[in-house]
């Protein structure tokens, strides 16, 4: 379990310069006992003021370092634009853009090489949970990166996001989430036990101001990855303030 919780906002393809201003302003009064990360669309990164109250992250990067890849953004470019983190392997990328475990691993290597902290998103679909395959799916997603690159764990953040809980209003219960987080930490210990004890494992999936406290009370939940509720500055602030 990590000492300081991390609350990350995934704006997805939402937001505006007005939201950048509202959220930056709101976060000037955030308590220093929590780390806050905002992952807006890449075009908004440069519109955030430099702040000691929050970090910025991208939502995706290319698996290539540079070159003739029209429309893509490299880790280095995003770093230069102000990002210090990047979400990788989000279920929407896996589902809509056919991102495989191998591709996610290549992107994670690029992120770390450039100096970005990767937030590796993993999680099972509803069908996989109903077939009682949650642990198998998660173990495979983790092994795809850390079995071959255990040295990357110490530089990573993990986000457990059950696909059935994302954007559905149906969060995992604190007990369900805790059980899976404990499993994730145990799996990671197979690759690097010291890093596994410290790595931050965030929960994501319909986190809001009403359910966050019970989630944050769980031993292996080190913060949250927040989608929908992160677009509402007041509610996002409440979630951040609940994470002490
Ligand atoms: C997400 O997409 O990472 C997410 C957790 O979304 P939501 O909070 O809206 O479920």
UniProtKB/TrEMBL annotation:
Belongs to the triosephosphate isomerase family. GO terms for cellular component: cytosol. Keywords: Cytoplasm, Gluconeogenesis, Glycolysis, Isomerase. Its main location: cytoplasm. CDD domains: TIM. It is found in: Cytoplasm. Pathway: Carbohydrate degradation; glycolysis; D-glyceraldehyde 3-phosphate from glycerone phosphate: step 1/1; Carbohydrate biosynthesis; gluconeogenesis; Carbohydrate metabolism; erythritol degradation. InterPro entries: Aldolase_TIM, TIM_sf, TrioseP_Isoase_bac/euk, Triosephosphate_isomerase, Triosephosphate_isomerase_AS. PANTHER family: TRIOSEPHOSPHATE ISOMERASE. It catalyses: D-glyceraldehyde 3-phosphate = dihydroxyacetone phosphate. Substrate binds at residues 10-12, 167, 206, 227-228. This is Triosephosphate isomerase. The keyword Cytoplasm applies. Homodimer. GO terms for molecular function: triose-phosphate isomerase activity. The keyword Membrane does not apply. NCBIfam families: tim (TIGR00419).
